[in-house]
Write a structure and sequence with these properties.
Helix content: 40-55%
Number of strands: 7
Radius of gyration: 17 Å
Shape: globular
Order of helices and strands: EHEHEHEHHEHEE
Largest sheet: 7 strands, mixed
Number of helices: 6
Strand order of the largest sheet: 3-2-4-5-1-6-7
Structural class: alpha/beta
């Protein structure tokens, strides 16, 4: 497993795609964790799909990805048949799992101070532990964001999300054989041997 981290628009997703497609024959699997919530997001997804091309299969979702990588929730495809798997992104998956944990509430009036963020982190970490258990022998590349390099977030939700994602990133980095940080389009290997 490989983790690719970096800031927004750093080039990390494009670099991760090059790692996944090292074996030029394909097919490759794209695990898309985003939810399309508005036309701008829909346009982004369409642009990414066009860039990847037809050799990629796409699976969309963020829950129980351990089952997906174990081949239990990916009907019609043999997971071992993919030459590379890209999960993009850990950050979006963490966001969606956090809101999944909070549940269906009146978002306009909800007080985020009410959330038990320790329990939320446990729920989120359980998902990532299952993912790593299933993905440890697969050609899996995961993309995440380094969001702790800037100012302390103003809101309770923002601070707790930053802390949870930082914990997730540390865990994934410890489980992966290689970790890269992409800065201004330049990948820097910070753990493991150079990919062949």
């Amino acid at each position: 497993m490989i983790l690719v981290t970096g800031g927004c628009r750093s080039g990390k997703s494009a670099f991760a795609e090059t790692l996944v497609t090292r074996d030029k024959t394909g097919p490759w699997l794209y695990v898309a964790t985003a939810l399309i919530t508005d036309p701008e997001m829909e346009a982004r997804v369409k642009k990414h799909r066009q860039r990847r091309g037809d050799s990629w299969k796409t699976w969309e979702g963020f829950r129980n990805l351990g089952n997906v990588l174990a081949g239990r929730d990916i009907s019609g495809w043999e997971i071992s048949g993919f030459k590379g798997i890209l999960l993009d992104s850990v950050t979006t998956m963490t966001t969606n799992l956090l809101f999944d944990f909070i549940g269906d509430v009146d978002w306009e009036h909800f007080q985020f101070e009410q959330v038990d963020y320790n329990q939320a982190q446990d729920y989120i970490m359980d998902n990532f532990k299952a993912l790593c258990q299933a993905g440890k022998d697969l050609p899996l590349v995961m993309v995440t964001d380094e969001i702790g390099l800037g100012v302390v977030p103003e809101t309770c939700l923002g601070r707790n999300f930053r802390d949870i994602l930082g914990t997730v990133n540390q865990y994934l980095a410890s489980e992966c054989t290689s970790v890269y940080m992409v800065i201004s389009g330049i990948p820097v290997r910070i753990k493991g041997a150079e990919e062949k």
